[in-house]
Amino acid sequence: MKRVLMLGGSMYQTYAIKEAVKLGYYVITCDYLPDNPGHKYAHEYHNVSTTDKEAVLELARRLKVDGVVAYASDVAAPVAAYVSEKLGLPTSPYESVRILSTKDLFRKYLREHGFNAPKAQGFSTYEEVLEVIDKFKFPVMVKPVDSAGSKGVNKMTDKSQLKAFVEDALHYSISKRFIIEEFLVKKGPQISGDAFSVDGKIVFHCLGNEFYNAGYDKDFAPLGECWPFSMDQSIIDSLITDIQRLITSLGMKSTAYNVEAIVGEDGKIYLIELGARAGGSLIPQLIQFVTGVNYVPYVIKAAVGDDCSDLKMAEPKGCWGNYMVHSNVTGKFASIEFDELLQKHIAEWAPDVKVGDAVHKFRDAQDCIGELILKYDSPEQMMEIIRDIENHINVKTLDE
């Protein structure tokens, strides 16, 4: 029985842990949160941080694992590649995964290899960026180089915001570095979804639309994805061509990718993110509803070197979406209600909160209290409900 080490046991990683057990592997989980729900489905758990690559290496070596999986985790992806490379296990190159997982390195790589990319630069201190900020065209985005879920990300419209935004970015950065990049005005919705390569060739992808709430302070923090894709199919074709060229140049092998891209107002396609991991927010489960393909088992098979050659492309069908449920006030969680109309469209509800838990007025993904997968009857109905979705959900706090 092959032994697989899964980095993390959060709600979003539980599905992959269950799939690994179903496939017949001996499943070991690790992170620094023993109460995470995924651990109870594994054969054993170890309290080791998924961002401590040397500690994970020592654990993997001691347990004689056959593969390491970083499912739905940007910060764990380089660790999985590092450990696998050190132990001679199946993996894409550690340095390539590190580039994809580190925003300033990723932007630099894109520019040096002829891909469309905004002007961007990485820094370690406020003083460093202060010397060059006037060379950037505002607005700019200030981001940690190695965080996820829009945590520590801010859109800066005036230089007076710089110090506070740098401090926020550094707070969420593991390596204590941040990036400044010029803001790209997009034409149409942001493109979001997942892809999978086998032996370096993209064999499966499912890309849809990402949506936001323009009324929030962070109007760039995504609230969900939906299908069908609303722009021309040629955009997807061109984007996949770019991704294939990129992963070929990086020497990527068999792995999942979380994709974020936009079409700029100049008509060019910009690859914003290409995380070397499956998407969070139930995206792989949503993709299974959309295409009928469950590609999660292939994430685990690839990590242990098992055959993935039967994974094939399938076209999206129907109207589907997910939604990051959240509170619009800060307090202690009491209850949540979905109105009668929304209940008719719920295919799956995965809560991540219990009575008495602290909830925060929505800022970004860290404030998510659960995920919905929704099925709609038509694209028009889908967009109508999405535009008004907050009025279909009532999150109550104990002090209300």
In whole angstroms, the N-to-C terminal distance is: 53 Å
Query: Number of DSSP strands?
Result: 19
Shape assignment: globular
As a whole number of angstroms, the C-alpha radius of gyration is: 20 Å
The helix fraction, in percent, is 25-40%
Number of helices: 12
Stretches where pLDDT is under 50 for at least 5 consecutive residues are none
- How confident is the prediction overall: mean pLDDT? 95
SSE class? alpha+beta
Range of strand content? 25-35%
Q: Trace the largest sheet across and list its strands.
A: 13-12-9-10-11-14-18-16
Q: Largest beta sheet, briefly?
A: 8 strands, antiparallel
Provide the fold topology.
Layout: E1 3-7, H1 11-22, E2 26-31, E3 44-47, H2 53-63, E4 67-69, H3 77-87, H4 94-101, H5 103-112, E5 120-123, H6 126-130, E6 140-144, E7 154-156, H7 162-172, E8 178-182, E9 190-198, E10 201-211, E11 224-227, H8 233-250, E12 255-263, E13 269-275, H9 283-291, H10 296-304, E14 319-325, E15 331-338, H11 340-343, E16 346-351, E17 358-359, E18 370-376, H12 379-387, E19 393-397
Parallel strand pairs: 1-2, 1-4, 2-3
Antiparallel strand pairs: 5-8, 6-7, 6-8, 9-10, 9-12, 10-11, 11-14, 12-13, 14-18, 15-17, 15-19, 16-18
Task: Tell me about this structure.
The strands form four sheets. Strands 13-12-9-10-11-14-18-16 form an eight-stranded antiparallel β-sheet, sandwiched between helices. Strands 3-2-1-4 form a four-stranded parallel β-sheet, sandwiched between helices. It is globular, with a radius of gyration of 20 Å. It is α+β, with helices and mostly antiparallel strands. The chain contains twelve helices and 19 strands.
